[in-house]
Recover the amino acids of this structure.
């Protein structure tokens, strides 16, 4: 009956909603609502509510055999040589990420956050791309433009946008699917954003950067923000993506696609993934699995059981996210700390750094220094410099396919979890055109294979099949497909 | 129930879609008797057999409306005649709740009806169906009907 | 001591008396119940901040004592934390007590081993709202607050410098602040359904502010109070008639205020009801929090509302919500938890109450007031002559 109660944040996305985790003696846990949390007033989306069902503890392994954590750490020390590549997309604390950066540095490498957009776009934009606006600013904006689907991708933005609407904002959504809270749902050619959206300094643009985001699209939006004076906020799918980006040397980084390419051409032999499951994150799952199979050593440091841990040579299992000590920075740039005190990951990496004394304290002060604060106060957002940037020449590639399977994203998608998202969405015309019948699942065929899956009728753009779950027959975030009964 | 494909509109009079839940022992027999006795009735009703009117779960009725039914009729043995002693009495309690629910929800009161029909009452069965169909025709298509369902 | 007796009592421990509200009787009674082994555990709110507390199930009397004092900004229902078969006591606002009884009817709580120590309640506030109200109306820094109190219709905050800042609750609620909407129209202020009902209403004369008025409602109520007296933790004196009259008067006044709020918030919807409900639910993101947090729902994982409903449904309204509407018609106690946790800010309690009120009135049935089963499933058919 004894319970340990942790004050923590939801690991679902970069909003970093406050919550409690009530852990029982047997290691199972429940979540509870933390109504005094400033980010979300205690409210959680389905991912947070269903966390106990979906978050499974990791197990340390060496070559497929379960081992003690200390043995896995020893194996890790022996396996990492020079020439290893490191990935941490931001599913862990700033301190743990920084520890990995120290390790990478000692091996002459950098830690890749996998956000290709950062390395492709000049450094002066990084602050704007990284840290968004306070969520309160959405509520007081006059005009809100959405390049995301808040319901599916960042559900806790819904109440902020609704509050904005209540305060008189007009909401325009530009995306694959019409969202019911928007006053206006539009499909606009990127070249016409400026003229069609007519933004000003009272406007807020909400978009997303994820590992598969086309940098050119980010440039277009940055140009739009610059030209109109509108505030811009890029949401990220990983809880501490912003914090890890702030800590990282972005310009030297590789995108996940580049890393996979370098594994394939043999220049990467050892890959270290810190709470980053490439199999779940990247759209072409088979290609990733194939590439990972070519590695001499796949080393996974993870706080939860996930697909990549099953194929790794070495798994260093750290404590679950809610037990970790350390700082998380959300999409607003707000720093939060939980009540957890675990440092398994940092200790494991510390072994390879020669076990410096007080490593956590050292890393923590480095994080605070990066943020320019003395202590973390979740109610006060640190001040970030956002340098001016120049207009960029951007040519986003248009997807020229007749029928496209498009991934919508969302916390379940990025964590590779099938929950209540095992269906695709399309509009009524698609149904009629492909003679689909009610109650009979649709067959979706790509070059790679086919799936038979339930579908739902929604107000989706013509020619688009929207999916919130990873399907095995995809080749990218957008895949050309045919639909039949 | 309804195919989610659009069909051509015709000039014929609109025919409502009615889901009718009949108990196994009385009302379903009533439907048989109506057929055997060749009593005229409109082709608007889709009958679903349940073992007892007491089995009627509110979920069935709500689901019927969401799927596009214009009206839902449910019927069982007369009070006192229930094969399971008091199933139909339970049905009346649920009916009260559902009526209150349908009213608050803003669906027309006429769209939901409970009636007792025994196995021998073929003529009454036809009469109940005819009257209910007329009633639904007056209130028109259900506002809960999903897009694309006819 | 008999059922129906009224007393005024206080803790004998100096520390509890000063830290707890109104003489610390409830805290002393709960701690004594643990110390003397009357119960194995107590559910209390562990304070984490001025506006933040988390429910804990504890066997440590010190933690119970540390939880002394009221927190109006922590709107949490404790019945969800009860475990079947454990001898447990809980301090209970009327909604805590009513949901405990509803859970007991559904076999989730053993009412015979659960001691419900009722607390009078005039309403609670959402912490996010409290902070906003402090900044915009009181012009105070929320971090400066060290205490709060409701007295004579005023909401009073005490700051670190010892100053008290009072504003009439009526005025606050006029501007959309103050108590949560469901608390404003809640007409159950004295937990008569609890084993023992405690509060500061009706404590007069020298004892005002230093004692707690208690009314014994059940045998268990006698047991928990006598246990505390035997342990030397509590002293009592019979309540006088004047005190009882004042308590009833305060309750009557609160009920009138609730009736006015009822008119304000729950008057019939103008225009199409269906449009209203479809629109209100259009922002639902299927998180299921409203069900998970619902203190009268006992269905668990495989519930009708969740099993027959899916995000892939193409309906105009979600079956999940419709099933919950029916399901809560006979059991919604209007505690407000669902509205609190809804990520799309849908006024769910308000909606459930709209469905529940007519049928609860028709059956003259109020959920959670006693162990009589709800009308929907539990009508005594044989007695009715069927």
């Amino acid at each position: 009956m004894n319970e340990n109660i942790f004050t923590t944040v939801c690991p679902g996305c970069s909003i970093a909603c406050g919550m409690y985790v009530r852990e029982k003696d047997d290691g199972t846990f429940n979540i509870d609502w933390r109504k005094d949390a400033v980010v979300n007033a205690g409210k959680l989306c389905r991912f947070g509510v269903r966390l106990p069902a979906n978050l499974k503890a990791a197990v340390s392994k060496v070559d497929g055999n379960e081992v003690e954590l200390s043995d896995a750490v020893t194996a890790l020390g022996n396996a990492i040589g020079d020439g290893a590549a490191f990935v941490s997309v931001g599913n862990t604390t700033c301190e743990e990420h920084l520890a990995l950066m120290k390790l990478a540095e000692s091996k002459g490498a950098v830690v890749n956050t996998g956000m290709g957009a950062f390395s492709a776009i000049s450094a002066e934009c990084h602050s704007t791309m990284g840290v968004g606006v306070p969520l309160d600013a959405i509520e007081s904006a006059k005009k809100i433009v959405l390049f995301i689907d808040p319901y599916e991708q960042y559900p806790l933005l819904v109440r902020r946008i609704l509050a904005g609407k209540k305060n008189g904002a007009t909401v325009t959504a530009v995306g694959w699917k019409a969202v019911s809270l928007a006053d206006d749902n539009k499909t606009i050619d990127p070249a016409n954003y400026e003229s069609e959206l007519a933004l000003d300094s009272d406007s807020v643009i909400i978009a997303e950067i994820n590992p598969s985001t086309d940098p050119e699209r980010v440039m277009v939006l940055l140009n739009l923000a610059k030209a109109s004076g509108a505030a811009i906020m890029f949401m990220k799918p990983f809880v501490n993506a912003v914090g890890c980006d702030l800590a990282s040397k972005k310009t030297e980084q590789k995108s996940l696609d580049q890393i996979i390419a370098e594994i394939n051409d043999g220049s990467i032999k050892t890959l270290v993934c810190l709470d980053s499951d490439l199999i779940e994150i990247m759209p072409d799952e088979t290609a990733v699995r194939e590439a990972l199979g070519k590695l001499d050593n796949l080393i996974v440091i993870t706080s939860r059981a996930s697909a990549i841990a099953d194929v790794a040579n070495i798994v260093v299992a750290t404590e679950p996210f809610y037990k970790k000590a350390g700082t998380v920075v959300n999409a607003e740039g707000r720093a939060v700390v939980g009540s957890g005190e675990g440092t398994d990951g940092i200790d494991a990496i510390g072994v390879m750094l020669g076990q410096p004394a007080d490593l956590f304290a050292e890393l923590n002060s480095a994080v605070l220094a990066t943020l320019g604060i003395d202590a973390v106060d979740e109610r006060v957002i640190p001040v970030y410099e956002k340098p001016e940037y120049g207009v960029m020449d951007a040519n986003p590639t248009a997807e020229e396919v007749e029928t496209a399977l498009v991934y919508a994203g969302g916390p379940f998608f990025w964590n590779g979890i099938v929950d209540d998202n095992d269906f695709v969405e399309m509009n009524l015309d698609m149904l009629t055109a492909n003679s689909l019948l009610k109650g009979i699942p649709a067959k979706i065929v790509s070059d790679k294979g086919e799936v038979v899956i339930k579908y739902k009728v929604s107000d989706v753009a013509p020619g688009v099949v929207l999916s919130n779950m990873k399907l095995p027959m995809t080749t990218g975030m957008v895949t050309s497909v045919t639909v039949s009964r | 129930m309804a195919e989610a494909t659009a069909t051509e509109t015709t000039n014929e009079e609109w025919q409502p879609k009615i889901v009718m839940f009949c108990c196994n022992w009385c009302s379903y027999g009533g439907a048989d008797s109506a057929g055997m006795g060749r009593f005229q009735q409109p082709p608007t009703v889709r009958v679903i057999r349940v073992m007892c009117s007491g089995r009627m779960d509110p979920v069935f009725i709500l689901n019927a409306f969401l799927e596009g039914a214009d009206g839902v009729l449910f019927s069982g043995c007369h009070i006192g005649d229930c094969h399971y002693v008091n199933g139909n009495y339970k049905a009346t309690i649920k009916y009260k709740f559902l009526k209150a629910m349908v009213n608050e929800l803003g669906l027309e009161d006429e769209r939901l009806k409970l009636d007792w029909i025994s196995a021998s009452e073929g003529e009454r069965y036809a009469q109940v169906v005819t009257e209910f169909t007329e009633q639904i025709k007056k209130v028109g298509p259900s506002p809960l009907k999903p897009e694309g369902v006819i | 001591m008999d059922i129906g007796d009224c007393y005024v009592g206080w803790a004998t421990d100096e520390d509890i008396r000063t830290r707890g509200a109104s003489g610390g009787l409830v805290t002393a009674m709960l701690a004594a119940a643990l110390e003397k082994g009357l119960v194995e555990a107590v559910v209390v709110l562990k304070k984490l901040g001025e506006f933040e507390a988390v429910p804990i199930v504890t066997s440590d009397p010190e933690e119970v004592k540390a939880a002394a004092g009221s927190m109006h900004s922590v709107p949490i229902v404790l019945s969800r934390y009860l475990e079947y078969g454990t001898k447990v006591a809980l301090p209970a606002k009327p909604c805590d007590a009513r949901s405990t009884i509803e859970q007991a009817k559904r076999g989730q709580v053993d009412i015979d081993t659960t001691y419900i120590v009722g607390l009078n309640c005039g309403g609670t506030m959402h912490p996010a709202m409290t902070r906003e109200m402090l900044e915009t109306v009181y012009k105070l820094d929320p971090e400066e607050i060290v205490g709060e109190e409701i007295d004579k219709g005023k909401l009073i905050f005490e700051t670190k410098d010892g100053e008290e800042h009072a504003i009439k609750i009526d005025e606050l609620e006029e501007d959309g602040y103050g108590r949560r909407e469901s608390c404003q129209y809640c007409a159950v202020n004295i937990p008569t359904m609890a084993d023992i009902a405690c509060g500061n209403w009706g404590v007069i004369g020298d004892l005002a502010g230093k004692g707690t008025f208690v009314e014994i409602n059940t045998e268990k109520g006698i047991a928990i109070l006598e246990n505390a007296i035997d342990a030397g933790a509590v002293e009592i004196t019979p309540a006088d008639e004047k005190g009882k009259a004042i308590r009833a008067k305060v309750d009557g006044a609160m009920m009138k205020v609730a009736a006015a709020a009822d008119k304000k918030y729950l008057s019939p919807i103008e225009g199409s009801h269906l449009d209203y409900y479809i629109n209100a639910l259009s922002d639902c993101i299927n998180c299921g929090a409203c069900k998970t947090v619902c203190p009268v729902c006992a269905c668990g994982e495989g519930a009708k509302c969740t099993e027959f409903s899916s995000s892939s449904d193409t309906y105009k309204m979600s079956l999940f919500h419709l099933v919950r509407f029916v399901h809560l018609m006979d059991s919604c106690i209007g505690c407000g938890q669902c509205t609190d946790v809804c990520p799309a800010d849908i006024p769910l309690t308000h909606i459930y109450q709209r469905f529940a009120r007519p049928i609860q009135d028709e059956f003259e049935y109020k959920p959670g007031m006693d162990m009589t089963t709800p009308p929907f499933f539990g009508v005594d058919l044989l007695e009715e002559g069927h």
Q: What stands out?
A: Chain C has three domains: 6-121+186-257, 127-178, 269-378. Chain C touches chain A at residues 41, 46, 48-49, 51-52, 54-57, 73-76, 83, 86, 126-128, 282-283, 285-289, 292-293, 310-314, 340-345 (CB under 8 Å). The mean pLDDT of chain C is 91. Residues 98 and 368 of chain C are 4 Å apart (CA to CA).
